[in-house]
C-alpha cells in the first residue's frame, strides 16, 4: 500500500469530518418550524418519479386534489407540477436531483413524491446517489415518520427513523484504498439524534402514548449507536413526568419481536437510526398488508416531503404489471401530507377509507397481478368510500370501537 493512497483516504476523511462539523453548526442555528396556517396558499409540489411511481402518483394526486378541492377553490392550497425527477433526466445531468428540479422543489412548501429509481453499480444507469437520500439531505428532512396500523390486532406503531445521518449520509462517499480495502462511514451527531428522538417523545406525549422504544446495535456499534442510545436515555428523563417510559431493543431481536404475536402490540413509538429504520419499516409494512400499503413523511423544519415507503418496482413495469401496483402507499402519504398542513379531519377521513377498503371490506383487493384489481379500480373504490356518509360508522364497526 502506498503512502499516497493512505494520505488520499485520510484527506478525504478529514474533509468529511469538516463537513459534518459544519452541519452541526447549521443544526444548532436552525430556524423555527414552518407555520402552515400562516401561508396562503400552501404550495404542494407533485414529483412523479419512475417505474410504478408515475402511475401511483397520478392516483394519489387525484385523491389529494379531491380531498383538498375546497381549499384550492378558497385559495388556501395550490398544486404545482414538478417535472424532471425521472431517472432519465437525473442520468442525463449525472446528478441525484438536477439543479433546476431542486430549485422548483424548494419553491414549494410540501412535496408529494413518487418512488424514484436508485441506481446500483452494474445496472443500466450511472451510479448516481439516490434521489431520496439527496432530497432528505438537501431539504434537511431529518424525520422519517412511518406509521403502521393493524387495528384488528391492536397494532398501532409509529416509527421515527432518523433520515439525514447514520449509514446513509455518506453512503455515496466511502473510500476505496488500494485494490483491496473499502471503507464506509456512519455518522450520528448529538443534535441529529436529539431532534429525532425528541420528536418521537413529543408524538407520544401529544397522543397519550406511554412508551418510546429506541432500536440500535449499541452493544456492537459502540460509538455511533452508543451515542443514539445515550441521547434516548437523556431525553427520556424529561418525559418521565408524563408517564412515558423508554426502553431499548437491539435491531436483531427487534426484527424477531415484530413478528411475535404475543409481544408486538406492546410497541408504540419506535425511534431508530437511518438504516435500521429503513429495514424494519419494510418488515412492519409487510405485516400491515405489504410495502404497497405504507406511506412515509419526511419532515424538516422548513419543508416536508411525503412518499411511499417502497421503490419504483421496475420489474412490475417490465412485466406490464404497473397498472396493478397498489397506490395505497402514495395515498397514505397524501393523507399524511393533508394532516401535516393542517387539515386533520380530511386526513382522518382518508385514513379510515384506506383501512375499510384495504384491511376490512376488501371488496377489491390488489395483488400486483392481473388476478387482482388495478390501481385505478382501487382508487375509484376508495373515493366512493371517502364520499360515503356511512364511512365513520363502517370504520368503527370494522375496528371494533
Ligand atoms: C425508503 C427507500 C429508500 C431508502 C431508497 C429508495 C433509497 O428504501 O425510503 O425506505 O433506503 O431510504
Ligand atoms: Mg426502504
How would you sum up this structure, described in words?
This protein has 401 residues and is of the alpha/beta class. The chain folds into 2 domains: 1-30 and 143-293, Isopropylmalate Dehydrogenase (3-Layer(aba) Sandwich), CATH 3.40.718; 33-141 and 300-401, Isopropylmalate Dehydrogenase (3-Layer(aba) Sandwich), CATH 3.40.718.10. The protein has helices at residues 3-28, 52-67, 69-73, 87-93, 99-106, 131-138, 190-206, 224-239, 251-257, 274-288, 314-318, 328-340, 344-360, 375-387, 391-399, and strands at 42-47, 77-82, 110-113, 143-150, 155-162, 175-177, 181-183, 211-216, 245-250, 269-272, 295-299, 304-308. Strands 2-1-3-12-11-4-5-10-8-9 form a 10-stranded mixed β-sheet, sandwiched between helices. Strands 6-7 form a two-stranded antiparallel ribbon. The radius of gyration is 21 Å and the shape is globular. The model has no long low-confidence stretch (mean pLDDT 96). It binds 3-isopropylmalic acid (IPM) and magnesium ion (MG). The site of 3-isopropylmalic acid has 7 residues, from α6.
Amino acid at each position: 500500500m502506498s503512502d499516497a493512497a493512505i494520505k488520499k483516504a485520510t484527506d478525504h476523511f478529514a474533509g468529511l469530518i469538516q463537513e459534518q462539523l459544519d452541519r452541526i453548526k447549521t443544526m444548532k442555528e436552525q430556524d423555527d418550524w414552518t407555520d402552515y396556517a400562516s401561508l396562503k396558499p400552501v404550495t404542494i409540489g407533485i414529483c412523479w418519479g419512475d417505474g410504478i411511481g408515475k402511475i401511483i402518483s397520478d392516483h394519489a394526486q387525484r385523491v389529494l386534489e379531491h380531498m383538498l378541492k375546497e381549499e384550492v377553490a378558497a385559495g388556501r392550497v395550490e398544486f404545482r407540477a414538478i417535472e424532471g425527477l425521472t431517472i432519465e433526466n437525473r442520468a442525463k445531468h449525472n446528478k441525484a436531483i438536477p439543479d433546476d428540479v431542486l430549485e422548483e422543489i424548494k419553491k414549494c412548501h410540501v412535496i408529494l413524491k413518487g418512488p424514484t429509481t436508485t441506481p446500483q453499480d452494474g445496472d443500466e444507469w450511472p451510479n448516481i446517489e439516490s434521489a431520496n437520500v439527496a432530497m432528505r439531505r438537501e431539504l434537511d428532512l431529518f424525520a422519517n415518520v412511518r406509521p403502521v396500523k393493524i387495528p384488528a390486532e391492536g397494532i398501532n406503531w409509529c416509527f421515527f427513523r432518523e433520515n439525514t445521518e447514520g449509514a446513509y449520509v455518506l453512503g455515496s462517499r466511502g473510500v476505496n484504498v488500494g485494490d483491496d480495502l473499502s471503507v464506509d462511514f456512519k455518522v450520528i451527531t448529538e443534535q441529529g439524534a436529539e431532534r429525532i428522538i425528541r420528536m418521537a417523545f413529543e408524538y407520544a406525549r401529544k397522543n397519550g402514548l406511554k412508551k418510546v422504544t429506541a432500536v440500535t446495535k449499541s452493544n456492537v456499534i459502540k460509538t455511533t449507536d452508543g451515542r443514539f442510545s445515550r441521547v434516548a436515555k437523556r431525553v427520556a428523563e424529561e418525559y418521565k413526568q408524563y408517564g412515558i417510559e423508554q426502553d431499548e431493543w437491539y435491531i436483531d431481536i427487534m426484527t424477531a419481536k415484530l413478528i411475535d404475536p404475543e409481544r408486538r402490540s406492546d410497541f408504540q413509538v419506535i425511534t431508530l437510526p437511518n438504516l435500521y429504520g429503513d429495514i424494519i419499516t419494510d418488515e412492519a409494512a409487510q405485516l400491515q398488508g405489504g410495502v404497497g400499503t405504507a406511506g412515509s413523511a419526511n419532515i424538516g423544519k422548513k419543508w416536508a416531503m411525503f412518499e411511499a415507503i417502497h421503490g419504483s418496482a421496475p420489474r412490475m413495469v417490465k412485466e406490464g404489471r404497473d397498472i396493478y401496483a397498489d397506490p395505497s402507499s402514495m395515498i397514505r402519504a397524501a393523507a399524511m401530507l393533508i394532516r401535516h398542513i393542517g387539515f386533520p379531519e380530511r386526513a382522518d377521513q382518508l385514513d379510515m377509507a384506506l383501512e375499510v377498503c384495504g384491511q376490512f371490506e376488501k371488496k377489491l383487493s390488489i395483488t400486483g397481478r392481473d388476478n387482482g384489481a388495478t390501481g385505478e379500480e382501487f382508487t375509484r373504490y376508495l373515493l366512493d368510500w371517502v364520499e360515503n356518509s356511512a364511512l365513520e360508522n363502517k370504520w368503527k364497526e370494522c375496528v371494533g370501537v
